[in-house]
Amino acid sequence: MGLFDKFSKKEDDTVEIKKTETRGWDAITAAFEKLYPDQKDPKHYGVLIPWELGGNDPLTGISIYETEEYYHFVTYGLSEIFEKETDDPEISGYGMEFTLKLRKASIDPADEEGELRCICGIFQKIARITFEHGECFRANEYLYTGQTAGIDLHQNSSLTGFIMITDTDAGSIATPNGKVDFVEFIGCTDAELLALRNKELTVAELYAKLGSDITDYRRKSVI
Fold first, then answer.
1. Which of 27, 55, 198, 215 could bridge 175 with an S-S bond, Cβ 3.0-4.6 Å?
2. Is the pLDDT of residue 80 over 50?
């Protein structure tokens, strides 16, 4: 099974936060509420059993903000969202949280919930690589697995992997637990990713060709 094979979530996908400090969490929320001041209660997907209690999902939660054009995902859990636990005062946890902007017009409205959960599942899988192997994902990198099936719910899209940039809106923030970079994932085609792997162009050059940071399941390859 590939990295982006379907991710099954339980119907009850909420978790009670029992930590006494949420200063890292609050800093992420504040950054996105600054971008979306009218959205104080965005759609949010939590986990039933936290990772530290033996759960399968390392991300404590994923929130989804909206514009007329796209859904804006942001994760909670790769940085120190509760109290400070690591020794480096300058960096919060792994120093990153994932984001993605998914174009609304590229998904079937009847599949909206499934498509949103699909992205959440992909982020959980990628975060699991970090938690289990210590691999971090940074701007100007790409994620290629050789998978040719689409990353969308029904695997119909030509997008099979991602490039990463610094989120064009959220950027980076200083939190009480250290710095956090918002690493934005952009869906890319197999041909585009192969061109990166073969060093035919750089991530920055591919991003310039795309001309947008919005993941669009219906777009054609630029390679």
1. 27
2. yes
User: pTM of the prediction?
Assistant: 0.90
Handedness of CA 23, 26, 32, 33 (dihedral sign): negative
For residue 211, which phi and psi values (nearest 5 degrees)?
A: 75, 10
| Residue whose structure tokens are 């200083």 | 174
pLDDT digits (tens, 9 = 90+) for 145-162: 888 999 999 999 999 999
Instruction: State the Cα torsion 56-70-161-137 to the nearest 10°.
Output: -60
Question: Cα–Cα distance between 169 and 172 in angstroms, integer?
Answer: 9
Return the pLDDT at 19: 55
Query: What pLDDT, on a 0 to 100 scale, did the predictor assign at position 20?
Result: 67
- Rounded to 5°, the CA angle 103-58-27 comes to 70
The CB density around residue 53, as the number of other CB atoms within 10 Å, is 8
190 three-state secondary structure: helix
Within 10 angstroms of residue 208's Cβ, the number of other Cβ atoms is 11
Beta bridge partners of 72: 65, 101
Closest CA to 141 of 104, 117, 107, 166: 166
Separation CA 122–CA 114 (nearest Å): 12
CA 14 to CA 75: how far, in whole Å?
14
